[in-house]
Write a structure and sequence with these properties.
25 helices; small GTPase binding; TBC1 domain family member 10A-like; Rab-GAP_TBC_sf; Cyclin A, domain 1; GTPase activator activity; Rab-GAP-TBC_dom; Helicase, Ruva Protein, domain 3; mainly alpha
């Protein structure tokens, strides 16, 4: 498992990783400007892969969870202190040990990882009592907790549930059924053989795509691929999830030769449950997903078509979900943040390596910044002055911020 966590850091040359870290620090220091004027560059960098050392912070900014947290200070603590609905508490507690049981964070029953997972999921049931808890939320929350503290993971989960995948976790699962039909309709353009095969065997999309979509592929792909897909998903929105599903269906059922082994419903389902490694390998999958020409306009067009059909056969939707936001740009445009909500407020502060190099005063000498000897003065919140020097230091350093450590928060 640790090897899986280190895959991306080992594959990217250390000098390239250093450069990417410096670029991401610059973007995070001026997030609103980058999203407003250089969103394509942000998207390109997400497609290349967010540096492991900054992934948690980047995800929090991409989802809008950072702004939500700042706008609702104290809210998570308030929810955390409440006992919760016994019905949901009982179900959540029974699910905790099922989430990444071989990961060091979640291996121990009652360990810190399981405790934080319980806190996040329970808080969500109190935040959205009309939705409560859905089992598919647990792996999503667990992935977030591997990269950020519980409060940040909570707000990122809120954004995923409400902006990226609205209605997915509501009673009746109407939204996921609709998206299953959208996926099937899009498949006709992407792979006609696969589309016809699934029609022939009357294989309802809900049978094979539910876990894929509701868990955002966190339980279906190798870890390195999960991280890369999430980098793109949280930047570009649900179209990435659709593209991954379409790529997998095309790879598994996209030719007559491949369909020879799928003579019936059972064989087809088994084939989709056991996807060969070459199709889910990080580099292959990311390249295929980026190149697949399916965009949000096509998804929305098909959404309205499927919604009309749903009303004809089932009547009105029982669960009225908010409109889906297609990625980070749409989220920030819908609710423009205040500049102070984007300022980074680290909870752990360590002496900067610049202090050893004579920046902001040397140890044992009176620094010009007015701080204690050897302790750098606080960086400018807008990323100027000391922030620029820190970026330069990172770019020139021989070590990455991640330094080969596991791609986890802890």
């Amino acid at each position: 498992k640790l090897h899986m966590l280190r895959v991306q850091a080992e594959e990217v040359p250390i000098d390239v990783l250093r450069q990417r870290e410096a670029k991401w620090l610059e973007m995070l220091n001026h997030w609103d400007k980058w999203m407003a004027k250089k969103h394509k560059k942000v998207k390109d960098r997400c497609q290349k892969g967010i540096p492991p050392s900054l992934r948690g912070r980047a995800w929090l900014y991409l989802t809008g969870g950072k702004v939500k947290r700042e706008q609702n200070q104290g809210k998570f603590q308030e929810l955390d202190e409440q006992p919760g609905d016994p019905k949901w508490v009982d179900i959540i507690e029974r699910d905790l040990h099922r989430q990444f049981p071989f990961h060091e964070m979640f291996a121990a029953r009652g360990g810190h990882g399981q405790q934080d997972l319980f806190r996040v999921l329970k808080a969500y049931t109190l935040h959205r009592p009309e939705e409560g808890y859905c089992q598919a939320q647990a792996p999503v929350a667990a992935v977030l907790l591997m990269h950020m503290p519980a409060e940040d993971a909570f707000w990122a989960l809120v954004q995923i549930c409400e902006k990226y995948l609205p209605g997915y976790y509501s009673t009746g699962l109407e939204a996921i059924q609709l998206d299953g039909q959208i996926l099937h309709a899009l498949l006709r353009r992407v792979s006609l053989p696969a589309y016809r095969h699934l029609n022939k065997h009357k294989l309802d999309p809900i049978m094979y795509m539910t876990e894929w979509f509701m868990c955002a592929f966190s339980r279906s792909l190798p870890w390195a691929s999960v991280l890369r897909i999430w980098d793109m998903f949280l930047c570009e929105g649900v179209k990435i999830i659709f593209r991954v599903g379409l790529v997998l269906l095309k790879c598994m059922l996209g030719s007559q030769e491949k369909l020879k082994a799928c003579q019936g419903t059972y064989e087809t389902m088994e084939r989709l449950r056991a996807i060969p490694p070459q199709y889910v390998q990080e580099a292959f999958l990311v390249r295929e997903v980026i190149e697949l020409p399916v965009n949000e306009k096509e998804i929305e067009k098909e959404h309205y078509a499927q919604l009309r059909r749903w009303k004809e056969t089932h009547g009105d939707l029982q669960c009225k979900s908010p409109p889906r936001m297609h990625g980070a740009k749409a989220i920030i445009a819908a609710d423009p943040p205040r500049r102070q909500d984007l300022r980074q407020k680290p909870t752990i502060i360590v002496a900067s390596p610049l202090a050893r190099d004579g920046v902001n005063g040397r140890e044992g000498e009176g620094g010009g910044g007015g701080g204690r000897a050897g302790v750098p003065a606080p960086a400018d919140p807008d990323g100027s002055a000391d922030g620029t020097a820190l970026l330069r230091h990172i770019a020139e350093s021989e070590e990455s911020l991640s330094n080969g450590e596991e791609d986890t928060y802890l």
